[in-house]
Amino acid sequence: MGKRLRYPISTFITALMLFRVYLIFRLYTRYSVYRTTFADRCCAKVGIEADMVFALKSSFKESPFSLLFLTFIVSVIFLGLAVRLFEL
Fold it and tell me: How far is CA 29 from CA 14, 33, 64, 68, in A?
């Protein structure tokens, strides 16, 4: 429309801070069933590491739709906040 948009630097910093939502998933995987010492021993026998990716994959295999729904809701909320932030 021929107009230039000017965003303050605080808008970009706040948008970058919204990407910290991944900490929720790290917290979930850290205290899940798949990060116990028993899981570590079972994974060591097979030759893999029981890390965050293993815990997420195992959780998706156990209950895919509930975890997918939770991931979708969290993504919609935080992306909606980012869009609202840039529209202000």
Answer: 25, 8, 15, 15
Q: What is the pTM of this model?
A: 0.63
Per domain, the residue ranges of the chain are 18-87
Q: What's the residue count for the chain?
A: 88
> Which residue is associated with the tokens 């948008």?
15
Q: Which pair of tokens denotes residue 2?
A: 């021929």
Residues 6+ apart with CB under 8 A from 54: 34, 39, 43, 48
Cα dihedral 69, 72, 78, 81 sign? negative
In tens, the pLDDT along 18-36 reads: 888 878 878 887 888 888 8
